[in-house]
Known about the structure:
The structure holds two protein chains of two kinds. By secondary structure, chain A is of the alpha/beta class. Helices cover 44% and strands 16% of the residues of chain A. Chain A has 14 helices and eleven strands. In chain A, the strands form two sheets. An eight-stranded parallel beta barrel of chain A has the order 1-2-3-4-7-8-9-11, surrounded by seven helices. In chain A, α4 links the parallel β3 and β4 (124-129). In chain A, α4 packs across α6 and α7 packs across α8 (221-237). The longest helix of chain A is centred in the first third of the chain and has 21 residues, at 36-56. By secondary structure, chain B is of the alpha/beta class. Chain B has nine helices and eight strands. Chain B has an eight-stranded mixed β-sheet, sandwiched between helices. Chain B is globular. The A-B interface holds A 136-137, 140-144, 281-284, 286-289, 291, 293, 296-297, 300-301 and B 73, 137, 139-142, 167, 169, 172-173, 176-177, 179-180, 182-184, 187-188.
Amino acid sequence: MKFSFFHLMPYPYLPDDFDTAYDSTALTYPNANFDPALGSALYARYLDELEYADQLGFDGIAVNEHHQSAYGLMPSPNLMAAALTRRTSRARIMVLGNAIGIRGNPLRVAEEIAMLDLMSGGRIDSGFVRGIGWEYFGHSINPVKSRSRFNEAHDLIIKAWTSPELFSWYGDNYEYRYVNLWPRPLQQPHPPIYIPGAGSTETMKFCAERKYTYMSVYAPTRIVRRWFDGYRQAAADLGYVPDPERIAFSVPIYVADTDERAHAEGRRVIEWLYHKGLKQTPQMVTPPGYMSPGSLRGVLSSGMRGLGVSTYEDLLASGQAVVGSPASVADRLGTLYAELGGFGQLIGLFAIGPSTHEQVMRSTELFATEVMPVLRPLGVKAEASA
Amino acid sequence: MAEAAPAEEFIELTGGRVHLLRGGTGEPVLFLHAAGGAGVWHPFHQALADAGFEVLAPDHPGFGKSDEFTEVDAIDDLVYHYLDVMDALGVARPHVVGASFGGWIAAELAVHSPHRIGSLTLLSAAGLRIPEHPVTDIFLLPPAKLIATLYHDPPAVPLTASPDAPPDLDAVIAAYRESTSLARFSWVPYLSDPKLERRLPRISAPTLVVAPSDDRLIPVEHARRYAARIPGARYAEVPDCGHAMYFERPAEFAAEVTAFLSAHPLAAAESGASR
Lengths: 386, 275
């Protein structure tokens, strides 16, 4: 099992009347509520936490991209990754990912990831995401084109990284007469790719065909199981068994010295994430064309509930958060491992809400020293199937 | 009075099938529906038919029962699409009436091919970019606020099923499909073509611009701008009415439109005595 520490970099200082006064932490949530002095301190703190995870022996430290939101303060994950290249030395630096569906110029992403790969000595993992619904409003990108833009940007970036000669690109969304990447990435043929999946069979097939890592997003275990099985089936259809490392389970985790203390502190953190951080209207979640009618039908009939209506207890029971003492967390993750049919990477969201720096550092340390050793033997590729 | 039920038909084009409602006899009126009006034969349409016109009401690509026409994904594609529809229907120079989103298409059609338009009626048309009077973002409005935005006097009884009723999955999917089709043409620039305004002087047909007095979606300034830029256009306002227009004030809208159409027979337009 490989472990990574994923930082969402939230802005946790919401007003007391947030629940009644605002639809969301994103898009229309007034930026007058952002205090630059607090924000500056948060960035310093959050980078310290990522660097600490590197020192503790996490295999990866992860950042992501979100726009116009208190949910996550990283409009540019590549800037954060750049800061990490100079202050860490062991962990892989995971950009999970660049939102290539909403980027105006995907060639810029190819360039920046290549730079990061060189700066980090080949430690970059490159995730690609479409960007979430509200970001299509916020960056004025037509959500109807989301899938098409994502696919084309992906193809262009891979070709830019791997082509040893200048080429031209003529697509539905982008046209370049001169693509001639300087610099090229250090890892060959290119940095490993991570793609989050949320049930689309098209994405499962896309990842299986390219042997990309398929990672889950917030959802109950029974639904994530369906996704992972879909990915495994897509690989089977192509005639291979995927390396467990190509399947990554991501989940919010909070560890404290005792169960009692963990729940006393963790409840507020998990509730912040699901009830405040992720609060949004249906229109923001699913702008027109963001999903195909068939996918929307699938989601609506799957019985998935809005995140905001799940209680803390529901979230724990459904595997959407893991909270407890080191022993309880190891035990619970072992159970989820079995319920999900196995996975080879665990992406833990350790800094997700109004937890203090001390709480995050302690949770991360307990996880690294007491939980990781227990789970480490799981999810390793069997020699026989190598 | 003419038959109340319109004929339903499909036109076969290269890119797919267009669903069309046809009612009445007389001079042809091509009616281009609003974002929410596909496949609706409203008392307003019947009033036009009753006034002696043949109303031809197609569903836009990706709306109602029309096919997607996936290659039709910008406003200029819609113009060529409707030239194809007119050719397939055999109407050389019809009256063209467009409401809201359909009004935008009608205006674009008229600047592209002024000679194909017998008369032009724009009912609170989208299409202009007036930054100081922005169009409300309908894509972000929850359903309850949408109703309050569309009506001067929002109906007490919701038009849709009660919130307690289980959601009708097919209806949700159908609405999402139409919303997707609208977004295809209008996400950005939002419900407008920044070049349209300066092209409006190309329009040569007699034109009527009608605005509801209390339009909370497309500010009345848009209709006034259309009227100011289209040569010789007549401007009318229907009082105590919201963007829902003929859904809120059917008789008043029908009266304005039928009076205008009757005053501008196509034969006169053909002879060049249109205004």
